Amino acid sequence: EEEEEEEEEEEEEEEEEEEEVEEEEEEEEEEEEEEEEEEEEEEEEEEEEEEEEEEEEEEEEEEEEEEEEEEVEEEEEEEEEEEEVEEEEEEEEEEEEEEEEEKLV
């Protein structure tokens, strides 16, 4: 009887140990899964941030380009206006000269 009891106890102990080992393994697996998930989330976040930054940079560049274009256009317009004014002045001068000549004649 004692032997039987001892055997039973041993078996129980073994079972308990096995269960503990199983539980530990399960816990480890869970932890690993959680870590993986966290890593994935972090990666996703990083990617999103990078994308946002890129978009912002692109927008800024576009804005700068537009501003530059506007500036160039304005400069061109100013130049044209100046040329027109110069032409008008020249024409006036010519007219005046012609008038003077006519007076002389």
Automatic annotation (TrEMBL):
Sorted UniProt keywords: Coiled coil
Coiled-coil region list: 1-105
Protein's recorded name: Tick transposon
Start and end residues of each stretch annotated as Disordered: 1-105
Keyword Coiled coil tagged: yes
Upper taxonomic lineage: Eukaryota, Metazoa, Ecdysozoa, Arthropoda, Crustacea
Protein's organism: Cherax quadricarinatus (Australian red claw crayfish)
